[in-house]
Amino acid sequence: MSEKNLTIIASKGTLDWAYPPFILSSTAAALGYNVTIFFTFYGLQLLKKDLNLSVSPLGNPGMPMPMSMDKWFPVLGTAIPGMQTMMTGMMKNTIKSKGVASVAELRDLCLEADVKMIGCQMTIDLFDMKHEDLIDEIDLGGAATWLDQASDSDINLFI
Hints:
By secondary structure, the protein is an alpha/beta fold. Helix content is 38%, strand content 15%. The protein has a five-stranded parallel beta sheet with strand order 4-3-2-1-5, sandwiched between helices.
């Protein structure tokens, strides 16, 4: 049986969007897949040494709200200053109380499982990011780097 390969493009950098690429990657690696994640645009936030991720209830109608707020609290109310901080805190507490691993723990698990992580050099340049703000265990590359990985992959995902 030949090796299986999974490539993922991670393009979002919020707390809720950090989980899918790391959960799928760590699971695939545990199942013997060779895994590559290409972090581009806002997904590069997931490679920062300091993971200060938040979740935005604004424009996220599928987000479950505490105390059934989604039934009585207007969507526009989620734009009130401080709501993002409050909702992020509530989400982090829920994650912790349910025993779900943190994003940092999942990222470390992926690194331990030899998941290859590529930061998009063009995006780093575009947003004037500093390489020293990113974790050391990554490679840098562009679309051609990802395409080279993806062309040999059994599964390609865009998250």
